[in-house]
Amino acid sequence: MATTDIRFKRMQGEYRTLQDAQNELFDKVDSFEAALLGLTQMVAANHEWTQRQIADLHEKMDRLMKHLDVPPKPPAGFVKE
Question: What is the pLDDT of residue 61?
């Protein structure tokens, strides 16, 4: 039949269109996944760096307070007598 070839070509075109759309979607998901992984790694590295900086500042503050003979901080809140 003459319409059989036309139907097969139409089905093949629909399949290719669906396959192209799926491939594009998969590529975008892969890109987003890679971006998310990169951001996660950056956040972890930034967190470690920040923690080291805070520890360094605490150490410097303690040395400065010791050098200036700053008395220890009094207890906060109510103190039973």
Answer: 95
Query: Which tokens belong to 36?
Result: 């998310």
Rounded Cα gap, residues 14 and 4, in angstroms: 15
Q: What global pTM score does this model have?
A: 0.54
Q: Which helix (H) or strand (E) holds 17?
A: helix 2-67
Q: Which residue's structure tokens are 């008395």?
A: 71
Structure tokens at 8: 């097969």
Give 9 or 57, the one with higher predicted confidence: 57
Residue 45, burial from CB neighbour count under 10 angstroms (0-12, 13-18, 19+): exposed
